[in-house]
TrEMBL record:
Natural source organism: Halomonas organivorans
A GO-annotated cellular component: cytoplasm
GO biological process: tRNA wobble position uridine thiolation
Protein name, UniProt field: tRNA-specific 2-thiouridylase MnmA
Reaction equations catalysed: S-sulfanyl-L-cysteinyl-[protein] + uridine(34) in tRNA + AH2 + ATP = 2-thiouridine(34) in tRNA + L-cysteinyl-[protein] + A + AMP + diphosphate + H(+)
InterPro entries: MnmA-like, MnmA-like_C, MnmA-like_central, MnmA-like_central_sf, Rossmann-like_a/b/a_fold
Annotated tRNA-specific 2-thiouridylase MnmA-like central domain residues: 206-271
A single MF term (Gene Ontology): tRNA-uridine 2-sulfurtransferase activity
EC number(s) per entry: 2.8.1.13
UniProt-annotated location(s): Cytoplasm
Length: 370
């Protein structure tokens, strides 16, 4: 086939989505080359990093498709611009999402620059999102497969980078993608989806974090300040999670499970409540750090939108207003469970992903009313 559409570099992760992306672009008449990025040097003596296998799979797919595969090591950029921030956030008691930063800083910045160096105007990835023009602007749209939509992770990528990226699988459902890979005999057809944070792999999160952040034991308390247990470090706990208390003698409390409701950083105290639906586990309104707007600016009018506070959540109705510091204040129509500082709030106008920001404070219905 002769290429008529210009040169595009596909981010080849060794997974099925990027394999099929390369295939589709070839079928569409692009001159396609692949790039495998190594963002984590796995010489930390563990067996968890799958980079070697992934590279071998990317090589096999590129050989099968007859395209060239480049490799690049961005581990230094990843460490400086993603990982250090990730650790600092944990240290500050928040639960960060490094994949969002990885997209903004690595996949849609360093990778784009690298592609330019290789003589390509455009890059492509296997993300389940779409690009579409609305009101004359290139917009980031949700992927058609609602189960796989990855716009949550891409909300911090600027419009100019979105405009230079192709998302061939964004128009497809995942089973169609696997079927295409099977039909073309690609080795990744049945490869299982990657889970969790890329550099942590399947290992226990606490073990990983302990290599970088020392344990900081403290107490677990009720909202009234009764000590009911001990924790090994606030960073090992996630809001809304069921919490084993590790001590007996809770004679004053009925035998109901405890859930993490808050982290008091100043006192190094984990606050726990009883019952999965305790009101303190619900957020009525929140504030974010300065927002990353895909369009570079907030929507013209404040008002009603929908929002996700975590990946794989259906977006829920809310009302938003801009704050002076560049962040937003959002109030949900219905209080949301386990909204976690450090994770991102992402706003949508229908299928358009507008942007998002890191959640810095949350208030329960009772606190909002005060
Ligand atoms: N190491 C890598 N090198 C090059 N591109 C990558 C790499 N990791 C991810 N990407 C790109 O980012 C996209 C989304 O990555 P993600 O980790 O979410 O994988 P995924 O949705 O399981 O996709 P895939 O099935 O292609 O691995 C990939 O489809 C690929 O285009």
């Amino acid at each position: 086939m002769t290429a008529t559409q210009g040169k595009v570099i596909v981010g080849m992760s060794g997974g099925v989505d990027s394999s099929v992306s390369a295939l589709l672009l070839l079928e569409q008449g692009y001159e396609v080359e692949g790039l495998f990025m190594k963002n984590w040097d796995e010489d930390d003596g563990t067996e968890y990093c799958t980079a070697k296998e992934d590279l071998a799979d990317a090589e096999a797919v590129c050989a099968k498709l007859g395209i060239k595969l480049h490799t690049a090591n961005f581990a230094a950029e990843y460490w400086d611009n993603v990982f250090e921030h990730f650790l600092a956030e944990y240290q500050a008691g928040r639960t960060p999402n490094p994949d969002i930063l990885c997209n903004r800083e690595i996949k849609f910045k360093v990778f784009l620059e690298y592609a330019e160096m290789l003589g390509a105007e455009k890059i492509a990835t296997g993300h389940y999102v779409r690009e579409g023009f609305r009101d004359g602007r290139p917009r980031l749209l949700k992927g058609l497969d609602a189960n796989k939509d990855q716009s949550y992770f891409l909300h911090a990528v600027p419009e100019a980078a979105i405009a230079r990226t192709l998302f061939p699988v964004g128009e497809l459902e995942k089973p169609e993608v696997r079927a295409l890979a099977e039909r073309h005999d690609l080795v990744t057809a049945r490869k299982k989806d990657s889970t969790g944070i890329c550099f942590i792999g399947e290992r226990r999160f606490r073990d990983f974090l302990q290599q970088y952040l020392p344990a900081q034991p403290g107490t677990i308390e009720t909202p009234d300040g009764d000590v009911i247990g001990e924790h090994m470090g606030l960073m090992y706990h996630t809001l809304g999670q069921r919490q084993g208390l590790g001590i007996g003698g809770l004679a004053d409390y009925p035998d109901a499970p405890w859930f993490v409701a808050a982290k008091d950083l100043e006192r190094n105290v984990l606050v726990a409540v009883q019952g999965k639906h305790h009101p303190l586990l619900y957020t009525d309104s929140l504030a974010t750090e300065p927002m990353d707007w895909v369009a570079g600016e907030p929507p013209a009018a404040e008002g009603r939108l929908t929002a996700k506070t975590r990946y794989r959540q259906t977006d829920v109705p809310c009302r938003f207003e801009a704050a002076e510091d560049g962040g937003v204040r959002v109030r949900f129509d219905d209080p949301q469970r386990a909204v976690t500082p450090g994770q991102s709030l992402v706003l949508y106008d229908g299928e358009i992903c507008l942007g998002g920001g890191v959640i810095k404070a949350t208030w329960s219905a009772e606190e909002s009313a005060r």
